[in-house]
Description:
By secondary structure, the chain is α+β, with helices and mostly antiparallel strands. Among the domains are: 34-131, no CATH class; 387-472, Lipocalin, CATH 2.40.128.630; 532-671, no CATH class. The protein has helices at residues 2-32, 37-47, 66-71, 88-93, 110-121, 474-505, 518-524, 528-636, 645-671, and strands at residues 182-184, 190-194, 198-203, 209-214, 219-225, 231-238, 242-249, 255-262, 268-271, 277-281, 287-291, 297-301, 308-313, 320-324, 329-333, 338-342, 350-356, 361-366, 370-375, 380-386, 392-397, 403-407, 411-415, 421-426, 431-436, 442-447, 451-456, 462-467.
Amino acid sequence: MNMRYFLLHGLIAVGLLGSIAFTTIGAQESDSDTVTFSEVRTVLRKRCMTCHSIDEARGDLDLSSMASIEAGSASGPVIVPGQASASLLYKVSAHLEEPVMPPNNSKIPGRELDLIKRWIDGMVPGVDSASMSSNGEASAAEMPTTVDSPNAPTGEVAEVTTDQEGIVPVRPLLRAATITSLAVHPSQPIFATSGRGQAVLGNLETGEWLGAINFPFGEVTALKFSADGETLLIGGGVAGLSGTVLGVDVSTGKRKFRVADEVDTILAIDLSENGRLLAVGGPSKVVRVYSIDSGEVVHTLRKHTDWIMSLVFSPDGLLLASGDRFGGVFVWNPDDGQLFHALPGHQGPVSAIAWDGGSETLLTGCEDGKLRVWNMHHGDMTTAWDAQVGPILSIAHASNAATLVGGRKNKANFWFGPELQKGTVKAEDQIVRVGLSAAGRLGVLGDSLGNINIVSAETGDAVRGMKLPVSDGEAEQLIARLKSMEADYLAKGEIELEVTKTAELTQPAASIMPSSPPESRTMQNLDPIAAALLLEKAEAAHGSLVSSLRAQQQMASRLTTLRQTTEKALEDLAAAEQAGQELLQTQTQLVEDSKSQLNELRTLLGVKLNREKLVERFQAEAQLLESTERQLEAVASQPQFMGSEELELLRTLKQSLLQRTEATRQAIENVGP
Length: 673
């Protein structure tokens, strides 16, 4: 029994040894492979371009192209060709130098770090080893042939390949999902909606699914038919990572062009009337206008402050309107990229915009529940009314002046102006996307439960209902696969544990040297397989401890910084309090000084007024004294008045006036000048 036990585990050990050797050889071969920029760009998009892209270049660093990387940042160069260990981009990503990137987060996985390191180490100074197109972007041929599907389990890859062109069968959904995009053909009874990595085509009149067109670059989030109906635009991508637009032939499903290479998914698209310009918008908060002929950006329109939710060219191609999640609506001249009008007053996200006729009238649907009509000659709002669907999520306008409006109150209304409503349609849940046939006879409604209802514009009655197919049991199969993978992983751990135990049991007793420390004796007598496993576990434990240490160091550093900041704030508060007390004392003293000055001024003004009155009084008394003296002289010269009472009275009056005049003069001298 013991012999069979050791033979079994001996075979397991041999198998593991072969696996380790194969892995080592594979790693050596991989190290010799040239890493292209397109491979590294996938990592940079995923980990770095939220903060370091053409739209958000923090620290003046843009990692979206080779040219912008070579331009460096505000701190200088970020790569040293051939020397990853001396390159700032690698050092901050590997957390070897401050500030570590991504900030306040663990470092990126080792496989991705190794990719960046090999890419930089493989560079020849002055020569880029990546396979690049002329504008520094990855060429279309380098796009991955498989893409991660949000519906696939972590680590799995959805079987969507770029060579599956044309009209293909509809891929069933794992579960019913929200209709994220909807477009109706301008002349035929055909509509397109979002599927599982596909744009799915349906027939309005028969309610049949006509097939699908694969979109191998992520999820479909925007659809639009060209004005002539020959091209279907399919926009989307991977949230926070990439966004692009495919133009396909409606009749064959074959690809005509691929334009746009965004760093986030695309939420709104439209093609100009002449088919020459493509406008895209999304979480980047800018509208980019691309040339279909060259694939280059011709205008970047920067006015929005939130995600672009809607945009549409006018039917004559003269104007381009765009709305955002913050309520901003702007109208642009697509020829020169200049702002034509800013339309204020929206009290919520503007998820829907439509043109009425040419470039003269614009309709906007806002989540404040109102439809607004704007005159483009002056940029004025001509009318607004409650669409009675709650927050508006989508509108569609037809040539017969019908406007179909869908909203969060699980219903849609047909309007023919602010006064005429012809029909109301109720749905199971929020109506997130609507469309109208060319003549406005039929409406298409997509709700958040995945239902598509085709209704009559005249009566609002439902004509037919449609729903994308849902896979029977595929979700359960994926869950079973995950459980199987988990069991395999746990079983592998048990086998490694058994191998380690076996290696410990088979140590020759004679090899244990009494003079060696216990740890040394054990390690010296392990077989190669057990030693490799123990080393791997030790390295993993060490790595975990190092990561934990760095995390604790970062936490300690942040706490120290917080403490220092708090202490500095307390010091600033104390200084501010002291300064406030001093200022209070100063202000109090100023008030007292002002009060004294005011009193002095009052006294001064009072004295001045009194002196003027005394001078006037002195002048009057002097005049009276002078008059009395003249009368006294006149009376004294007459003999008949000698010794008379009149003469004595005048003398007494004169004497009195002399005393009063002298007293007034003395008072004037006392007052001063």
